[in-house]
Amino acid sequence: MPEKLPYHTQIDLDLLEAMKDGTQQEYLLSNGVHGLDGPWSQQSQQLKTQFNAKGFHFNRWWLLTPPDWSCSVCKREKIGIARTDKNGFLSGHLHEHHDHMTDIVENLFAEVSSNRKQVIATEQGKKFIRKIANSISAYDATVICSDCNAADATAKKLIGTPKDFSFSPSEIESFISAYPNTAHQVDKTSASKAWQKQEDTFQSRMSLARQLAQIAAENQQWYQPTNQQDLPNNIEKKAQRHLTAAASRRNETIDLLDYLAAFPPPPPRTDLTKWRKKKWKTQPKPTNGDIKHLVAVASNSHWGAVTNDWKCPCCGRLKKETVHKNNKGEWSFSVRTSSWNSDEGRVIETVCNDCFTTSIQLAKEIEVDRSCFKISEIASVAISQPNQRHRFESDEIILQILSGVEQRKYW
Predict the structure, then answer these.
(1) Which residues of 136-155 are buried (b: 16+ CB within 10 A; e: fewer)?
(2) Residue 21: phi, psi to the nearest 5?
């Protein structure tokens, strides 16, 4: 007797068969698709009974999300969002809540362009506007429940914000009280505080929007669109569609990583010492402003991982002395906490990224794990300077160290 397939797998296979004979619409209405929602789901049927609804009124985002979806703002699941509408139907509505900056900039672009004595705007200018508008939006477009979306409009009306302003999902969360299967209550005082925090920023964004509209209207834009088929994301998506189609014929799943793993890279380069012979240019030292900016935008997993008086136990540089420019020309600070060899056994130490990388590269030369090295051994081959990448000692000194490490691996 053949093994019974999981329910959702059987549903998906049945759908493929229905698509072949042209009955997919009928099939979807009665069976649905695993991972999506609709009148066919057990939860929808239970809610219909619970509310004694005449039927269903679900919108796009309700249908495209799973039955156990929950709103990131009010934290309610679908069972706490649904309710009957004025016509007695079970209403399930989710909305794409977005910043209106794209619309604002497009409208300003049209206004500035149309008021010129000579209109010189082009289609390229409109594409530029749409591209750049995302950079001055306050938040990403987010699917939220209809009650949270409505609370945004209610709050703006209560406190009289500009019509072009919209609260972000986290700001909406700060001024609502949510209850199951009913509209939210909006706290005017909290909404006013949220607006006050954003008012100056919003005005700055509007000023920037006007400048961008002026640039586009004067045909001074710099954006040059690429053929869509050559965009990296589109190439990946198209490749994944081909893989999915090929896999579905065999009832399998293949993703891009599986495919790429089937074609391993060529053997490593023969010269494993090239990395330490590279001549790095001497870099300028970071200013106090550079350091402050780095601290402001750095991940706490690095800058905040060590105290301000920390110094690398390997190369001896102070915290600020390990800051240098990375391959992108940006100021960078990174530390690594890992296991090291020592005369007393294994020890855990936090070293600068230059020392850690040195241990990795030396380990590759003799095919051992980097944790075989002692910190003192890395210190003896690395020539450190403040705010520079490490330089290295002569081949003779390095080979002596590598020979000692290699011998330990056979103990």
Answers:
(1) bbbeeebbbbbbbbbbbebb
(2) -100, 10
CA angle 24, 30, 31 (to 5 degrees): 80
Length of the chain: 411
DSSP helix/strand/coil, 154: helix
The runs of H, that is alpha helices, within 71-100 are 78-81
Residue 252: how many CB atoms within 10 A of its CB? 11
Q: Which tens digits make up the pLDDT trace of 48-84?
A: 999 999 999 999 999 999 999 999 999 999 999 999 9
What gap in Å lies between CA 322 and CA 282, rounded to an integer? 14
Does the global pTM surpass 0.85? no
Confidence of residue 7 (pLDDT cuts 50, 70, 90): very low
User: Can you tell me whether residue 106 is helix, strand or coil?
Assistant: helix
Q: What are phi and psi of 92, to 5 degrees?
A: -130, 100
Q: Which two tokens stand for residue 357?
A: 């990388």
Q: Per-residue pLDDT tens for 144-200?
A: 999 999 999 999 999 999 999 999 999 999 999 999 999 999 999 999 999 999 999
pLDDT at 13: 43
**In the block, residue with structure tokens 């999981």:** 6
Cα separations (Å) of 255 from 65, 236, 350, 386? 22, 10, 37, 45
Encoded tokens for 102 = 């794209």
Contacts of 63 (CB under 8 A, 6+ apart): 36, 37, 38
Burial class of residue 261 (count of CB atoms within 10 Å of its CB; 0-12, 13-18, 19+): exposed
Q: What is the mean pLDDT of residues 22-42?
A: 73
Rounded Cα distance between 398 and 393, Å, is: 7
